[in-house]
Amino acid sequence: PDPFSYFMLVAFEASGLIRFAALLMMWPVIRFLEMIGMEEAGLKLMTFVAVFGVPKSEIESVSRAVLPKFYVDDLDMEAWKVFSSYDKRVVVTKMPRIMVERFVKEHLRADEVIGSELLVNRFGFATGFVKGEVDIYSRVAKLFVDEEQPTLGLGRPSSSGSSFVSLCKVRAYLK
Length: 175
Prior knowledge:
Elements: H1 4-15, H2 17-35, H3 39-51, H4 56-65, H5 67-74, H6 77-84, E1 90-96, H7 97-106, E2 112-116, E3 118-120, E4 126-130, H8 136-143, E5 152-155, E6 170-173
């Protein structure tokens, strides 16, 4: 539920101690933004500080070599059992897709990953910004246009009212 530690790993592994310390100093601001209901702004701030100026290839490398161990440690095994029992699997995240896609496709065997898109300049360096607003609801709906609605949606209760989970026949919320 809290992506801060993943961004700390990316900051440290991709850039070193200075970026790690900068992100750590931003922690009170990020928590304050979350407390006043501005979780999206906190997530954008974490993303910016962790990846600004980092080569895309370095972010991909950290996402491939370092993050999977920590994702596995945080995986809810009951949710995994349910998730793995379906044929078509879609993972939805508010984190930048580049940070989760490899793990989700290789380890969870998901078919699709929907997340925010990190902007990269023409030289291959991350700008720290994400492309526009992520309209998760419509992106999930597009995946199931030619099929019947998704069978099961697993999500967090703090999600907004237009959550992708409302598209599903059966809805389950994780702690």
